[in-house]
């Protein structure tokens, strides 16, 4: 039974490899990739059900008992993120053929795509900090391949910066893992947690923790480490942007959640208080970025930063409402960001430009796109009854209980500006006179994946009663690291 | 000796970063290579140095050096090699496509 | 009760289908039935024996967010207003909006609004209330932007959304805070636990958050600026949302929370000041407008201020008057908006400078307008409801001293004067509106259409409202006992028995105040053109709109400035910021947590050969900085790499040494391949400043990681798990080379994915090269 846990990593790996053998047979590859991703989604759903009904599924790879072998831990948090990843991925897989040129598809798009999913799932599921580094590299390498797919001037240019900055943080990751090994003598996360607790996170340990935090913060695009992100996320095809926006930064934030709820929880007054500041600054600067541009893709890319700010805010608050809020927001943001990237990708295609100054009145030709954008704006800003709202209620309650008032004010103001940044697209791009000379293009096939993602994120808000109890249980679980430690060490 | 190797790793870090702050692709790539050396040396040092024989089990030997950091470093070396190769080709293609090997000339503007 | 809220929303989704069929019948005819049915439903609750009703439907019970509908006197008053005026507005819109307009959209938005507004006044759960609150902002945004091809409509829509959602979010903050303080989301429970709230140190914050929401929604000074621009919406919308209902949501909120904050002195001070200032400012500015709807917009602002002030007073009389005036204002202002819409519809303009003398062309409309404006002006006639509420308002300003013993004594003293001042201007703009449109001589040459009386259908709705004005005026006590008193009691939190008397006697101060208003008002109306120059002096160039415009503009420009300042696209800048952040923060944490430990006890001995290899590596590394030839730099970097593999040999890591050797050799070859033809490294002529920064950061970073490394090495609290590997490698792993066993067995997953990384890299490189060479091909 426990072998199940590794399936969400292995299925995409095999899918990627299989698809690499038929690069030129596009029709076949397209069908096969859809079958693969849907089956992976089904498997992930099944494991999710299993985990939520019977507790964590833990696999000791190669039958080497924890803490000696690599442990795959499908607990409620990791499997929920894997599930969400697969939902986003499935939507992207269905969108891809409509958006990518045949040439790009032939150049192993689907292979890179599946390996990216494999790496992301692995990073969520692993219980071993060095193994996490390896999965980070898998997903990064796949992302390098995807970002340069097509080899445009712009793409190459931005990918250079993207690769260098990520390479730097990867090497810092190895170094930090080394330091951690030097002090606690292990790389198994549960055992690290156990040992850090035994010595009460004394001496150099907090510093090593902060170093790890920065490693993850670079990937998560937190203030002030997000410089690599906005531009490099908009140069590739929308479907790749959607994958990046929804998944890559979230892996970083997941790692922060995991490490700072499991391992480094003994100097909260220092570490987590700092997170709140970083959260506030991420919100402010992210929103300013989103307001600064007329490029609709860039608006969405910048909007990743405040969202990450909201998530880290809950970790900083570190009480039950706060963490529930973070996780709710995390799931919400994965869905809505993917949907928004696909949406603006479609708008850009339909309008022929991503420059907001160059089009208007689109609603006369694409009413459905317009209304989806409209709803997305409210979803993103956390206006009720949509999903961001539930996360926000929890975050606000958590923050007030912890006496953190300033961050609440920043959070509320940035919500307003997030909404403004999206409504700007709606008002300037969709409202206005009908342009009679405009030649509408067919966007057939592109809307369905967006609708599904948007519908899910709307459901995440309206149907919160179906979701929230699970989130609450994750939050309780995270606040009690002993559960994880026991599950792994005695499993 | 561990301290000396730590300092050496620190020096590798410093020179790597100095190179990463330069403009030309070649220096940047060299910087990233030095960085990986630094990281690996740190990892090695953390397992303590020279506390026994190489970790290849032989009879009558009881003390071995810590094998785990070595395994981790090996993984990391291979991964770094992969990235470096990609980076080299990427740098080559970027230089060719953008007609410059100066990263500072690759700023671009927002609407493209 | 949930059906009354949901039905408009649900049925609204069918409206687009109805309007798809090109029926001869106006879509509004179908829609008309919805508010009517709801109105009839709520009518049944009217009566002296009314008791609050509660219905609860679960939504998110685990978060305490439920549709907890609570119908008390206050909710009932609002529900009747919403559905009643809603019915009349839909009826009016059938004649006002042509069938060529996108009616489907219009009615969807309108019904969405009605649902939301009913939701606000019926919800006892603060979070559900907030949900509906934002929904009204959204539908208001869509309705204002209904004619979105107009630049002004888009501007007005955005402005209203930004300001009201700003307030909404603030209110949401207040709700969250209150729910944390009291542990509940139910308003009634909060009212029952006022003492907990007042004892909390966060009360001022919660109050501030809530009031910001109320003031923005109810267009209180200085947040009123969105309301005049909201007049870009079709007139039925202005009559409905922007005078009778939505703008009163803020009043509702303040009224609803009056029992909680009523005893809190700052509540009195802030709400009163906001209300009185808004009253005076709105009425003063109304006289200066030339657009009929703008006059009414400022008039609405002013009237909302008056009600807000009375809610601030918090005395029995004041609250009774406030609730009473909410009703009265809805009747006369609703009808006046419809009159303005009718005039616009029949003459083609709303510019009062082009109008005048319409009495002869539109006698019925003029009559309706006369009743409406007279009621609004508070002219002492016994059949106008506006007069009663104005009298009560004056009375409440005078009787403040009776109930309030406050440090805000000064405020109490000047309020009556300000009330009179505001009312004088109310009188002036009312008559200005009436006579400017219907009195004087007509200027037909300035009109695009020849004016004539409106069709009967357009007169029904304002007619009914004016009928209401008179009915309430004639029988004030009839509605008092049945539902105004219930509403007022819900706000006051205790019994209120107030009979409305018309006649207070000649000598009664409030009547004298009314006389002063009429007297001075008449003089000012007659001489209006003489003193209108005053507006150049005050407010003159002072404009809150300008502040809003500047803020919005600055949001764009300043954010662009800030963002382009650091998002330069320069890798060096990015790296510097990232590195210095990591350096400063990590070093800070190291010092703050006492992270530095140096322990010399457990170290390997220092030997000459190791030191010399280390020196060689260091020298090579440093050398890469100074060498200028491509070839040389690559080779020197290679030396560093080979030096590292030498170290691996020395430190008993044969596998590592071997791998490193191979990798280094291949790397050097690749380097040469890729960079051989690229130009040589340029001469380094960068400024000293750049060099200094680079040096500080790189040396600092190197020093920091070294320090952490040494400290980590010195903090060896636990044995390593490697001993297990050494022990079991042979027996369980089946191999003697422990590193290999770890790689393929214990950490086989690492190795699998390490190969994957390599594979992706190879494929990516292939793509990079191939994609180019095939360019222009297939």
From TrEMBL, chain A:
Pfam families: Proton_antipo_M
Keyword Cell membrane: yes
Biological processes, Gene Ontology terms: ATP synthesis coupled electron transport
Transmembrane stretches, start-end: 6-23, 35-52, 64-95, 107-126, 132-151, 163-184, 204-227, 239-268, 274-291, 298-318, 330-351, 363-386, 406-427, 448-468
Keywords for this protein: Antiport, Cell membrane, Membrane, Transmembrane, Transmembrane helix, Transport
Record carries keyword Membrane: yes
GO molecular function: antiporter activity; NADH dehydrogenase (ubiquinone) activity
Family named by the database record: Belongs to the CPA3 antiporters (TC 2.A.63) subunit D family.
Name assigned to this protein: Na(+)/H(+) antiporter subunit D
Source species of the chain: Lentibacillus kapialis
Lineage: Bacteria, Bacillati, Bacillota, Bacilli, Bacillales
Automatic annotation (TrEMBL), chain B:
Keyword Hydrolase appears in the UniProt entry: no
Organism (species): Lentibacillus kapialis
The keyword Membrane belongs to this UniProt entry's keyword annotation: yes
InterPro entries: CPA3_antiporter_subunitC, NUOK/Mnh_C1-like
Membrane topology: Multi-pass membrane protein
Family: Belongs to the CPA3 antiporters (TC 2.A.63) subunit C family.
Keywords recorded for this protein, A-Z: Cell membrane, Membrane, Transmembrane, Transmembrane helix
Compartments (UniProt record): Cell membrane
Gene name per UniProt: mrpC
Transmembrane segments: 6-21, 28-47, 67-92
Protein name as annotated: Na(+)/H(+) antiporter subunit C
TrEMBL record, chain C:
An example Gene Ontology CC term for this record: plasma membrane
MrpA C-terminal/MbhE domain residues: 694-770
Domain NADH-Ubiquinone oxidoreductase (complex I) chain 5 N-terminal: 60-106
Pfam families referenced in this protein's UniProt entry, alphabetically: MbhD, MbhE, Proton_antipo_M, Proton_antipo_N
Localisation: Cell membrane; Membrane
All copies of domain MrpA C-terminal/MbhD, residue ranges: 615-679
PANTHER family reported for this sequence: NA(+)/H(+) ANTIPORTER SUBUNIT (PTHR43373), NA(+)_H(+) ANTIPORTER SUBUNIT A (PTHR43373:SF1)
Annotated GO MF terms: antiporter activity
UniProt keywords, alphabetically: Antiport, Cell membrane, Hydrogen ion transport, Ion transport, Membrane, Sodium, Sodium transport, Transmembrane, Transmembrane helix, Transport
UniProt family annotation: Belongs to the CPA3 antiporters (TC 2.A.63) subunit A family.
Membrane topology: Multi-pass membrane protein
Keyword Methyltransferase carried by entry: no
Residue ranges of the TM segments: 6-23, 30-50, 70-94, 106-122, 128-149, 161-190, 196-216, 266-287, 355-379, 414-435, 456-475, 511-527, 574-598, 604-626, 633-651, 657-676, 696-714, 751-769
Official protein name in the record: Na(+)/H(+) antiporter subunit A
Chief localization: membrane
GO biological process annotation, one example: proton transmembrane transport
Domain NADH:quinone oxidoreductase/Mrp antiporter transmembrane, chain residue ranges per copy: 123-408
Signal peptide: none
């Amino acid at each position: 039974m426990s072998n199940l846990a590794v399936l969400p990593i292995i299925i995409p790996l095999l899918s990627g490899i299989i698809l690499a053998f038929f690069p030129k047979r596009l029709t076949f590859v397209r069908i096969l990739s859809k079958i693969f991703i849907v089956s992976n989604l089904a498997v992930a759903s099944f494991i999710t059900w299993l985990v939520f009904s019977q507790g964590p599924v833990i696999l000791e790879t190669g039958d080497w008992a924890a803490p000696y072998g690599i442990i795959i831990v499908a607990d409620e948090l990791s499997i929920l993120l894997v599930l969400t990843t697969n939902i986003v991925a499935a939507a992207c897989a269905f969108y891809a053929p409509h958006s990518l040129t045949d040439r790009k598809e032939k150049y192993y798009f689907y292979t890179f795509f599946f390996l990216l999913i494999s790496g992301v799932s692995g990073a969520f599921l692993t219980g071993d900090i060095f193994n996490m580094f390896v999965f980070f590299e898998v997903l990064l390498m796949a992302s390098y391949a995807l970002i340069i797919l097509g080899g445009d001037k712009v793409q190459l240019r931005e990918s250079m910066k993207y690769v260098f900055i990520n390479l730097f943080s990867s090497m810092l990751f190895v170094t930090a893992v080394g330091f951690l090994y030097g002090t606690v003598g292990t790389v198994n996360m549960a055992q690290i947690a156990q040992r850090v607790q035994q010595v009460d996170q004394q001496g150099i340990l907090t510093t090593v923790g902060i170093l790890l935090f920065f490693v993850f913060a670079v990937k998560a695009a937190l203030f002030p480490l997000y410089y690599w992100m906005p531009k490099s996320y908009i140069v590739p095809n929308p479907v790749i942007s959607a994958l990046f926006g929804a998944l890559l930064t979230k892996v970083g934030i997941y790692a922060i959640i995991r490490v700072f709820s499991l391992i480094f929880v003994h100097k909260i007054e220092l570490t987590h208080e700092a997170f709140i500041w970083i959260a506030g600054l991420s919100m402010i600067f992210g929103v300013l970025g989103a307001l600064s541009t007329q490029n609709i893709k860039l608006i969405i890319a910048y909007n990743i930063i405040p969202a990450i700010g909201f998530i880290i805010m809950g970790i900083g608050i570190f009480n039950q409402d706060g963490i529930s809020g973070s996780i709710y927001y995390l799931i919400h943001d994965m869905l809505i960001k993917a949907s928004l990237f696909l949406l603006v990708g479609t708008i850009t295609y339909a309008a022929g430009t991503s420059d907001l100054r160059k089009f208007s009145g689109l609603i006369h030709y694409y009413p459905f796109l317009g209304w989806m954008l409209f709803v997305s704006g409210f979803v993103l800003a956390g206006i009720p009854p949509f999903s961001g709202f539930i996360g926000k209620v929890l975050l606000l309650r958590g923050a007030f209980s912890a006496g953190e008032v300033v961050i609440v004010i920043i959070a509320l103001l940035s919500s307003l500006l997030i909404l403004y940044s999206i409504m700007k697209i709606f008002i300037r791009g969709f409202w206005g006179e009908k342009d009679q000379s405009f030649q509408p293009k067919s966007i057939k096939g592109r809307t369905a994946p967006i609708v599904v993602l948007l519908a899910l994120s709307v459901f995440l808000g309206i149907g919160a009663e179906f979701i929230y109890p699970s989130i609450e249980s994750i939050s309780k679980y995270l606040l009690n690291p002993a559960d994880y430690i026991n599950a792994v060490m005695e499993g | 000796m561990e301290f000396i190797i730590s300092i050496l790793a620190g020096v590798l870090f410093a020179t790597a970063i100095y190179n990463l702050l330069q403009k030309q692709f070649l220096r940047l790539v060299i910087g990233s290579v030095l960085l990986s050396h630094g990281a690996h040396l740190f990892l090695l040092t953390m397992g303590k140095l020279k506390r026994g024989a190489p970790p290849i089990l032989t009879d009558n030997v009881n003390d071995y050096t810590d094998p785990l950091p070595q395994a981790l470093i090996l993984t990391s070396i291979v991964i770094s090699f992969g990235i470096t190769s990609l980076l080299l080709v990427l740098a080559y293609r970027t230089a060719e496509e953008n007609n410059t090997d100066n990263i500072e000339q690759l700023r671009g503007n927002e609407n493209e | 009760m949930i059906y009354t809220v949901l039905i408009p929303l649900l049925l609204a989704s069918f409206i687009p289908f109805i309007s798809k069929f090109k029926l001869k019948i106006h879509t509004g005819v179908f829609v008309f039935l919805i508010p009517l049915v709801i109105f009839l439903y709520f009518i049944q609750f009217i009566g002296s024996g009314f008791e609050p009703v509660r219905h609860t439907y679960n939504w998110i019970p685990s978060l305490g967010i439920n549709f907890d509908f609570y119908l008390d006197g206050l909710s009932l008053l609002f529900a009747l207003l919403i559905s009643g005026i809603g019915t009349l507005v839909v009826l009016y819109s059938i004649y006002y909006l042509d069938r060529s307009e996108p009616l489907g959209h219009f009615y969807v938005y309108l019904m969405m609004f009605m649902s939301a507004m009913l939701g606000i006044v019926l919800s006892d759960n603060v979070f559900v209330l907030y949900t509906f609150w934002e929904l009204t902002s959204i539908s208001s945004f869509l309705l204002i932007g209904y004619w979105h091809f107009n630049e002004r409509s888009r501007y007005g829509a955005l402005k209203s959304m930004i300001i009201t959602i700003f307030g909404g979010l603030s209110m949401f903050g207040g709700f969250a805070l209150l729910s944390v303080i009291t542990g509940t989301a139910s308003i009634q429970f909060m009212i029952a636990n006022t003492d907990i709230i007042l004892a909390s140190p966060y009360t001022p914050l919660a109050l501030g958050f809530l009031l910001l929401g109320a003031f923005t929604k109810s267009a209180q000074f200085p947040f009123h600026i969105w309301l005049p621009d909201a007049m870009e919406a079709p007139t039925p919308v202005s009559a409905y949302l922007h005078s009778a209902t939505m703008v009163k949501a803020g009043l509702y909120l303040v009224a609803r929370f009056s029992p909680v904050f009523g005893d809190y002195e700052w509540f009195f001070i802030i709400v009163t000041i906001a209300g009185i200032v808004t009253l005076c400012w709105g009425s003063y500015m109304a006289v200066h407008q030339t657009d009929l709807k703008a006059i009414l917009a400022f008039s609405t602002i002013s009237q909302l201020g008056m009600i807000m002030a009375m809610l601030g007073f918090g005395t029995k009389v004041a609250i009774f008057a406030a609730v009473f005036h909410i009703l009265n204002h809805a009747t006369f202002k609703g009808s006046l908006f419809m009159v303005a819409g009718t005039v616009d519809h029949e003459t083609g303009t709303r510019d009062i400078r082009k109008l005048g003398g319409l009495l002869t062309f539109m006698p019925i409309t003029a009559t309706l307008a006369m009743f409406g404006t007279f009621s609004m002006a508070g002219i002492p006639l016994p059949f106008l409801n506006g007069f009663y509420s104005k009298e009560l308002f004056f009375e409440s300003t005078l009787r403040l001293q009776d109930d309030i013993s406050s440090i805000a004594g000064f405020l109490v003293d000047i309020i009556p004067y300000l009330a009179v001042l505001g009312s004088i201007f109310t009188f002036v703009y009312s008559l200005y509106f009436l006579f400017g449109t219907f009195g004087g001589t007509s200027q037909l040459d300035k009109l695009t259409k020849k004016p004539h009386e409106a069709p009967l259908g357009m007169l029904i709705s304002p007619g009914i409202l004016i009928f209401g004005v008179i009915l309430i005026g004639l029988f004030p006590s009839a509605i008092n006992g049945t539902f105004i008193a219930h509403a007022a009691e819900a706000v006051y939190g205790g019994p209120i028995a107030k009979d409305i008397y018309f006649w207070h006697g000649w000598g009664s101060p409030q009547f004298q105040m009314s006389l002063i208003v009429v007297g001075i008002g008449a003089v000012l109306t007659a001489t209006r053109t003489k003193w209108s120059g005053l507006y150049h002096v005050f407010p003159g160039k002072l404009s809150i709109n300008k502040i809003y415009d500047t803020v919005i503009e600055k949001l764009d420009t300043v954010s662009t400035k800030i963002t382009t300042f650091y998002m330069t696209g320069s890798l060096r800048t990015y790296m510097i910021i990232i590195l210095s952040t990591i350096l400063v923060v990590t070093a800070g944490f190291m010092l703050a947590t006492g992270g530095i430990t140096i322990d010399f006890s457990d170290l390997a001995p220092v030997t000459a050969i190791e030191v010399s290899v280390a020196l060689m590596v260091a020298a090579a590394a440093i050398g890469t900085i100074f060498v200028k030839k491509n070839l040389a730099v690559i080779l020197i970097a290679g030396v560093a790499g080979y030096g590292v593999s030498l170290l691996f040999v020395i430190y008993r890591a044969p596998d590592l040494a071997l791998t490193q050797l191979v990798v280094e050799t291949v790397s050097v070859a690749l380097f040469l391949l890729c960079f051989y033809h690229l130009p040589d490294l340029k001469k380094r002529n960068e400024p000293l400043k750049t060099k200094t920064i680079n040096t500080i950061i790189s040396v600092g970073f190197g020093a920091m990681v070294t320090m952490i490394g040494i400290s980590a090495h010195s903090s060896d609290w636990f044995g390593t798990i490697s001993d297990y590997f050494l022990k079991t490698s042979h027996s369980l792993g089946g191999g003697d080379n422990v590193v290999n066993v770890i790689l393929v067995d214990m950490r086989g997953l690492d190795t699998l994915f390490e190969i994957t990384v390599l594979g992706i890299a190879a494929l990516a490189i292939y793509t990079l090269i191939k994609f180019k060479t095939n360019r222009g091909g297939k």
